[in-house]
Amino acid sequence: MTVLDPFTDALDYPLYVVTAEAAGERAGCLVGFASQCSIRPARFIVWLSKANRTYRVAGRADRVAVHLLGRDQGHLARLFGGETGDRTDKFTRTAWHPGPGGVPVLDEAPAWFVGRVESRVDGGDHVGFLLVPETAEHPGGEDFRLLSLADGLDIAPGHPVD
Question: What's the predicted TM-score (pTM) here?
């Protein structure tokens, strides 16, 4: 329990899958802490847990991809949130293709963007990756209901915080 829990318990924000590639090593994880943080210039920040393999790979990467998931994509949320890349090659279990700069892009994602890492900010047990969006796609084109925190509460994290 933290002092912030009474506030954050009321939130139901989107979940994202963040992927990275560095020196031929791929990683990806489920992320709940992320937001657009500037309009002009466009900027987005994603927060990666220091306990997570994706954090270690993204720390050496120039770019990362941020994917939105639909409510019907719990299988991807469980793969990228409930498995650890320390033991599982998640990319052998889902379709993907190399995006800009070689960043893995999930084929099933209804929307995604690739951003260049402009800076990293230490936030405690997470590090914020400030991204300059380079390309964004919404390949599905149709409206979809976002997968949110409430939809992922039953996913046991691959790397617990404590």
Answer: 0.91
